[in-house]
Amino acid sequence: MVQVRLMTEADLDGAALVHQSAFIRQKNSRDWLQCNLSASPRFLNFVAESEGEVVGYIIWVQKSGFRPEAVLELEQLAVLPSAQGKGLGKKLILDSLPQVKQKLAEQGSTLKHVLVTTRVDNFAQKLYQSTLGAEVETTISNLYSADEVLMIARNVGERI
């Protein structure tokens, strides 16, 4: 059974292993995740845990201030290679979003839109489209390691 819950300090080592396996060109995985965890509530970090092991994580970021209608970025979504292809990415999105909406409500906000950037060749585009209703808005040439697409899921709070 996989549980999606808020990330804690105790999850950092496991989440760093997931990060290292998913983003091989990046470095200092634990430090990166620690920074994000420390930036709560702007950054909302969740892990997927199975049998006491972190098998994935998702990071949501509030953009452009704490607003009555929040625009979030799905900053990062990662799953261990051994757990891929089992619907865990979709579960991370769908199980964390109600928790995100609750955190937003506690600060007097509602969810409006979700932004996602990902490599042009990343199969996860299909996940973001089918799960969030995200559509490609533009392509950004040579941003990180390749061309990226900016996707926007509009009015997510009303639909999910």
Automatic annotation (TrEMBL):
The keyword NADP does not apply. It is an enzyme of class 2 (transferase). Gene3D superfamilies: 3.40.630.30. Keywords: Acyltransferase, Transferase. Residues 2-156 form the N-acetyltransferase domain. The keyword Transferase applies. InterPro entries: Acyl_CoA_acyltransferase, GNAT_dom, MshD_Acetyltransferase. Its EC number is 2.3.1.41. Pfam families: Acetyltransf_1 (PF00583). One of its GO terms (molecular function) is 3-oxoacyl-[acyl-carrier-protein] synthase activity. PANTHER family: L-AMINO ACID N-ACETYLTRANSFERASE. This is 3-oxoacyl-(Acyl carrier protein) synthase.
